Amino acid sequence: MNRRQFLTATAVAGGGLSGLYTFGNGSDLSAATLANKPRLKMPSLLDTRQTKTAELVAQKGSSTFIGNAANQTFGFNQPYLGPTLVLENGDFNPVVKNQLSRPISVHWHGLLVRGEHDGGPHIPVTKGQEWRPEMLVNQAPATLWYHTHIHQQTAHDVHKGLAGIIHLTDGRDDDRGLPNTYGVDDVTLVLQDRRFDDRGFVSYELSMPDLMHGFTGETMLINGQYGAVCSTPKGIARLRLVNGSNARIYSLFFEDQRDFQLIATDAGFLDQPQPLTKLPLAPGERAEILVDFSSGQPAMLMSDGDPNQGPGGMMGRMRGMVDLFVDRSISILPFAVDEQLPTRITSFPDQLEGPGISLREQDVIQTRSLSLDMGMMGMMGGGGGGGGFAINGESFDMRRINLEVALGTTEKWRVQTTMLSHPFHIHGAIFKVLSEEGNAPLKHNTGFKDTVLVRDQTELLVRFDHPASQQNPFMYHCHILEHEDAGMMGQFTVS
After folding, report:
1. Residue 351 and which of 17, 35, 184, 247 are 20 to 30 A apart at CA?
2. Can you tell me whether residue 361 is helix, strand or coil?
């Protein structure tokens, strides 16, 4: 089955899917409207630089997003989501506790640590138990995140709230001329889409289209909040963007088409800022951008349609199907300038400082081909190895090691898909994108990364510097969480 046949079939199965999307595509940025919106809050801050530890407790919570509906949620140390952890290189000895009746884990997404510290599905923490990894962090500054990673319940539990953000810092952002006052000019934004009923209760009931495309919603939450406005100083603001959605692929831009500067991708800073007007961001990806608010004018962060979903996406643009959907953008978050906030940075930097990692194609010792597979069983929501969600025809099996990699080596991975676009994530390693669909990498994929959106075929140059045993292997998988849970995941050792 090819991409056209697959999308046509799922459009029929989903009743056209167009009814699932009710985002507003207009924006009212008047002073009166913005003044009546609640101010966006940042996640609580947990600075580990002195203590070298952090206690994360998975717990039940009650969260009100819309109206007075009290939703049953999960969180780390709080009712929903978790605190922002501030880390620096060196020892990090967290304590993970579980008060939930279901097992959880904490995967440090983007943190380059040994397999026994990675927090994948082989390291569950059951109710009343603790996990105390003694970790050594040694990598470039970056915006990372953490989330539970128990096989076949990751999608549900991350949707429920078991995720949080990591700021890995070297304390030199002033030298780089970058905003770094948390919640003022350095703003963390966790993007999540959710479905609500008319009373304000969150729904996570999977239909067949949800299983096929991944779960998407019609309402945006930013940092777990609905309908908020982000206040910024009258100058340069740094936005740390984290796609914490289960499946939605964003294509971010500002409604007034203002330029912004991309300064960092998943694994750290670029060497020089990259001017952009649009930034794709798939589940699991992070990016840091600088935005100039010195005009004092409000701005609306928008997104084009998801390429895997209905209106405005791949299905709507396909030849012969353009009349089925109406292309439209969606509103993500309004920004309003607060002149009472201190303005520290008024110009973009010319130079940054990338991770300084040498990844050379001439060092490749092996080339591997990986196919992200969705067969007919996948269309029906099945996950077995006989044609469902799989990689190279094999659905994930905790007992099977798919690849064995040599420690300290560089490999080329050719990752391809014949149907949907899939965000592909590798644990315990970072990579450079060599090519996308036979062409040079897109501008936003020129930095070091650990997650990339694979459309047709993407070539990656991957370096493996951290060991992982058969008991605690690393994962590679689609970061559409429903696909991962259904079997689009493999595991590998590094030794």
Report:
1. 184
2. helix
Cβ contact 448:143 at 8 Å = no
Q: How far is CA 48 from the centre of its chain?
A: 23
* Cβ atoms within 10 Å of 369's Cβ, excluding its own: 11
**Mean pLDDT computed over every residue of the chain:** 90
Per residue in 303-335, pLDDT (tens digit) is 998 888 754 333 333 323 333 334 468 999 999
Contact 107, 146 (CB under 8 A): yes
- CB-CB neighbours of 131 under 10 Å: 19
Percent of the chain whose pLDDT exceeds 70: 88
Nearest to 114 by CA among 95, 84, 96, 139: 139
Tell me whether strands 142-147 and 107-109 are parallel, antiparallel or unpaired. Answer: antiparallel
Token pair of 340 as six digits: 């009472």
Show Cβ contacts of residue 31 under 8 Å, excluding neighbours closer than 6 positions. none
Q: Are strands 219-222 and 90-92 parallel, antiparallel or unpaired?
A: unpaired
Taking the C-alpha atoms of residue 257 and residue 278, their distance in angstroms, rounded to an integer, is 9
- For residue 365, which amino acid is it? I
d(CA 82, CA 317): 38
CA–CA dist 256, 242 (Å, integer): 22
Q: Quick one: average pLDDT of 266-282? A: 97
How many angstroms from the chain centroid is the CA of residue 204?
19
Q: Please name the amino acid found at residue 336.
A: A
289, two tokens: 């951008």
Inform me whether the pLDDT recorded for 389 exceeds 50: yes
Integer Cα distance of 392 and 446 in angstroms: 27
